[in-house]
Amino acid sequence: MSVSETPLSRWVSVARLPQGRGAVTVEATPAECTALAADFKIPAIRDLAGQFSVSGPTSRLVVTGTVEGTVTLVCTVSLEPFETRVSEPVEVVFTDTDRLAGTDAEDADIPDPIVGGRIDFGLLTAEFLALGIDPYPRKPGVVFEAVQLGEDVKPFDVLRTLRPEEP
């Protein structure tokens, strides 16, 4: 998905943020929640909001905060839909320069880019909501019980059937 196709987008100009410190709030509309739920392939999202604090110089901004929302998931055990609250902490560094250009940066924590002097706080909200969703959701109170049919078969039992019987 390209940046222009994201269901939730809130571009903020870095130059418009108060120097040194600022706050940004993103509240998704019902239509944006519906589009995000379709993107995430889950039944529903509602009450999605991101609260962010921004600090540092415009060349290296630190964004901290929380993304919260209510999502409807499908239980991986019972296949029943259920609602759950997601609350995911956010801490991301944005920079307008690639300080690590030309270096071996495999193990380095590379800052996210400031694109055209702007940051998409809507995309940031959607990304951290996705991080907070359990990939194997289980409805509260549902317990997985393994079903065993017949006796336990040991790995080498089949080989014993191939060996001729001893007299």
Residues in β-strands, percent: 35-45%
What is the helical fraction, as a range of percent? 10-25%
The unreliable regions are none
Instruction: Specify the number of helices.
Output: 3
The end-to-end span amounts to 70 Å
* Helix and strand element order: EEHEEEEEHH
Mean pLDDT: 84
Shape summary: elongated
Radius of gyration: 24 Å
Strand order of the largest sheet: 2-3-4-5-6
Structure description:
There is one protein chain. The chain is of the alpha+beta class and 167 residues long. The chain contains 3 helices and 7 strands. The protein has helices spanning 30-40, 121-132, 157-162; strands spanning 11-13, 20-27, 44-56, 60-74, 81-95, 112-113, 118-120. Strand 3 and strand 4 form a beta hairpin. The longest helix has 12 residues, at 121-132. It is elongated. The N and C termini lie far apart (70 Å).
Helix and strand layout, with pairings?
Layout: E1 11-13, E2 20-27, H1 30-40, E3 44-56, E4 60-74, E5 81-95, E6 112-113, E7 118-120, H2 121-132, H3 157-162
Parallel strand pairs: 5-6
Antiparallel strand pairs: 1-7, 2-3, 3-4, 4-5
Concise structural overview:
Helices cover 17% and strands 35% of the residues. The protein is α+β, with helices and mostly antiparallel strands and 167 residues long.
Features:
single chain, 167 residues, alpha+beta, five-stranded mixed sheet, two-stranded antiparallel ribbon, 7 strands, elongated
